[in-house]
Amino acid sequence: MLPTEVIERKRDGRELAPGELAAFLDGFLSGRVADYQISAFLMAVYYRGLSSEELEAFTRTIIESGSRLDFRDGGAPAVDKHSTGGVGDKVSLVLAPLLAEYGVRVPMMSGRGLGHTGGTLDKLESIPGFRTDLSLEEFRAVLGDVGCAMIGQTPEIAPLDGRLYALRDVTATVPAMPLIAASIVSKKVAEGISALVLDVKFGRGAFLTDRYEAVRLAEIMVALSEHLGLPATALLTAMDEPLGSAVGNALEVAEAISCLRGEGPEDLREVTLALSAEAVAGAGAAPVSEAASRLANLLDSGAALDRFRMLIERQGGDPAVVDDSALLPEAPFVTEFRADGSGFVTRIDARTVGLAAVELGAGRRRTGDTIDPAVGFDVLARVGEHVSKHQPLIRIHARSEEQAGRALARVETAVALSDSPPRAPAPLVWKRVAAR
Known about the structure:
There is one protein chain. This protein is of the alpha/beta class. It contains 16 helices and 13 strands. The strands form four sheets. It has a four-stranded mixed sheet, sandwiched between helices. A four-stranded antiparallel sheet has the order 6-9-11-7. Helix 2 (about 20-30) packs parallel to helix 4. The model has no long low-confidence stretch (mean pLDDT about 95).
């Protein structure tokens, strides 16, 4: 296998044999294929794509580069959820303990925020003492005790994916759909779960702004998962405005706790219940409608809150934050952006709010940047709502008055008012994609 021949054939749009592709990637892991050669190959994939056979071989090689867990052991079914990322998306914090309370195991491996989208690990680490760097042995123990566990990707799981992503990040090939699908699905298959539900977001605050491009990605990932033996479904969910009210790590933890208490924003509840019901149905535990009804009752009753408290304690965090959100990090300077007139809210641009949160320090410009867990926003109005002059629209939690001023200048551009109500938006949960 000559690396240059592999690169050349993919550059010219020709299909690679599965064994040839696997040998090329194995050569990268062993040092026989150089970083610059893999980078050239990734750019060729960006422009030429991968056939379904190539994508399956590519993903299998990533899976086989590390260890595989196996939770198909006769116990409760194990499921997981993956989101393509959005602003204010704290669904995982509610979904994992809710499913555990239902009786389904959730061995969740999550990521960090990058760009304008937040990351589950950053949110969890805003809880004093919470550890996301558990060993696989600790991970299994927490899962056995609590029914859910939430950690970052370990070096043992799909190490090839980590090395490929580092190059994708610096070669502008992150958006390539086959590479996205292989990265996500490889890690989920390696988790050894029984079912996967994908939250594929579309809209101004999503990675994919066009809903039909999001459908295409969902179809690729669902088909790939199924070919690799992992039953999967995807829900297409809107991300034009932030999900829920809170944007920022500690603020989102507090809102997730409120949702687990049976309170919290309706949109967060809707997306969480829809994804949770799909996960239960995918595992064969109950039909979607039956699962949705029981999950809603569990959420309304606050029954899953104790699961979250247990999870926090078992992963080294302070469980008292569940009862007293003041124990979470708090920003020293709080101010508000108020409406300069009356009218209907026609836009709260999620991407702009997300970028403003990054500027405050709630997100990263580059991998390795330090996160400030306390800063962020409370979005106090919703699209379609009629507001009056001087009504607070967004509350800003900042480290200083100067920092808050910069954030205020940015969020002012995120909000639009009109004398007329906006057109009805797309449904929050717009479309379901399942295996053909």
